[in-house]
Write a structure and sequence with these properties.
- The chain is an alpha+beta fold.
- Strands 1-2-3-4 form a four-stranded antiparallel sheet.
- The model has no long low-confidence stretch (mean pLDDT 84).
- This is DUF397 domain-containing protein.
């Protein structure tokens, strides 16, 4: 199933991660505007696969990677 066909990501507004700038185009895009899921995909392949997280799992991930 293409990402664009995945009903869980219908209405997703993708944005490039602020942590992805300046690395030669290796960017991660995040869609965190949906009420029940957070999507993550490769900006170089927007119609390819995406990871889908629950909002709680995404917050836990961010809390872990944001630690100094």
């Amino acid at each position: 199933m293409a990402v664009n066909d995945n009903p869980a990501l219908a209405g997703a507004r993708w944005r490039t991660s602020s942590r992805s700038s300046g690395n030669g185009g290796n960017c991660v895009e995040v869609a965190d505007n949906l009420p029940h899921v957070v999507g993550v995909r490769d900006s170089k392949n927007p119609s390819g696969p995406a990871l889908i997280f629950s909002p709680a799992a995404w917050r836990a991930f961010l809390a872990t990677v944001d630690k100094p």
